[in-house]
């Protein structure tokens, strides 16, 4: 066993079916009395559900959460939180909603109860990405780590097939990069492998039968496990590339992660063979890169960055940006192999070594 440091993140996790009914109890457990509920406009019906379950602890609803957590939206929500004298925030929704809950916690120190409805995993991390003037910046702060997560499988049953697939692959990406992170500890390694295993089992079933409750439950458990990995260790080349691509060309977050992942697994194969062997084992595949590419195909996810709006001349720009300020990676981040990686991902070809 190599030397390690283990620092688990403090969080209460309630997992099951119908668990949203515990909202009031969980808010009160945190010593709070007035919850501001946040969600997106599309999911505003969840606001009514929260109101029912919070009873007298409901202080108000702000249903304007938006992708990439724009600071203007957070400031408006902050004004409303003050107006209704909120002492905690309850977020029901995907990563965008959780982002808003975290932005409020950062500004006020209010405790959060988050009820995730996608597989993004943000609820399990002390990470917040915010956008101001078109620029997204990311920070790690214990202030933004939600105190309580309520996983209610019932609330994920409505997640459309396509979103389930890409959101699930986004979660798998956290675990893949976690397995070769320099801070990896044995507990996080187990979570990463089991998170991949659970999602790999569940996502094809959900793709065929979105109302399969057992598969939905497995996927949500996998999302938590993979989110906990993201919260615990640093991310590498894959996340750097996805941040560059998302930020430069406004590509959809989860799709970008899904498309790029097999290619980064191929890139890092020779630098982190043990980690990628563990990924392959969790996937039940002979090779991690090939297994991830096949899973994308099986789930009907686009295979090419050009299909989701990346311009061809963006390849060189993305290579330059990734090489100029790389995240830590198990191997060197060099322009030429990176250009080949992005060319394959742009065209949707099989990852290098499996053409
Ligand atoms: P999202 O939250 O933007 O949701 C996408 C859409 O799906 C929204 O319209 C939402 O209302 C809808 N939706 C969500 N759950 C639904 C459900 N069960 N049924 C029907 N519709 C539903 O998407 P996301 O992929 O969950 O989150 C992406 C965002 O999260 C990005 O901004 C990303 O940067 C962030 N993120 C942050 C972290 C972190 O640790 N800070 C981790 C992962 C993702």
What does this structure look like?
The chain has two domains: 12-156, Rossmann fold (3-Layer(aba) Sandwich), CATH 3.40.50; 161-347, Dehydroquinate synthase-like - alpha domain (Dehydroquinate synthase-like, alpha domain). The chain has a six-stranded parallel beta sheet with strand order 1-8-5-4-2-3, with helices on both faces. Helices cover 51% and strands 12% of the residues. The model has no long low-confidence stretch (mean pLDDT 96). The chain has helices spanning 23-29, 44-54, 71-83, 95-108, 161-179, 186-208, 213-232, 237-249, 253-268, 273-283, 288-298, 314-324, 335-347, and strands at residues 12-16, 35-38, 58-62, 88-93, 112-116, 127-132, 135-140, 148-152. It starts with 11 loop residues before the first strand and ends in an 8-residue tail after the last helix. Strand 4, helix 4 (95-108) and strand 5 form a beta-alpha-beta unit. It binds nicotinamide-adenine-dinucleotide. Nicotinamide-adenine-dinucleotide binds next to helix 4, strand 6, helix 5 and helix 9.
The best one-word shape is globular
Rounded Rg: 20 Å
pLDDT averaged over residues: 96
The termini sit apart by 36 Å
Strand content: 5-15%
Strand order of the largest sheet: 1-8-5-4-2-3
CATH T-level topology of the largest domain: Dehydroquinate synthase-like, alpha domain
Structural class: alpha/beta
E-strand count: 8
User: Cofactors and ligands present?
Assistant: nicotinamide-adenine-dinucleotide
SSE series: EHEHEHEHEEEEHHHHHHHHH
Low-confidence stretches: none
The level-1 CATH class of the largest domain: Mainly Alpha
- The CATH level-2 architecture of the largest domain is identified as Up-down Bundle
Largest sheet: 6 strands, parallel
The helicity comes to 40-55%
CATH superfamily of the largest domain: Dehydroquinate synthase-like - alpha domain
Q: Please, how many domains?
A: 2
